[in-house]
Amino acid sequence: MKILVLEGPNLNMVGIREIETYGGISSSDQKSSIDIWAKSKGNSLTFKNISEEGSIVDCINDSAGSFEALIINPGALSHSSFSIRDALKGLAIPVVEVHLSAVHSRNESWRKQLITADAGQPVISGFGFEGYKMAIRFLTDS
User: Where is pLDDT greater, at 28 or 68?
Assistant: First the structure.
């Protein structure tokens, strides 16, 4: 299966920022490991990290023509972006939303509200980068 893994702002900084929350292994090393694992299961992953909300919406809208599924981690935009929510709601391919941290257990009250999750896709939260593998398994049954 051809899958787009779309990450929002600051997720490229995993391994550098907030190590106590996100761990000390770099985002690129984590993605490399996931990509190797996915290929061994017959899947093709494309990772994109986009910080601008409008560009994320454009990418979501364009993904149906190029990919069979979408895994999205909107980062902090999941708590504020109705435009990303609406784009996800209108998407014709399967979607899984992933969050590295357990957002509902975080100290900041605003993190407990996931506007993007209101689009109806499954949400995986709190498993670190293993959440991406869980999403791939869900999408592919592999």
Answer: 68
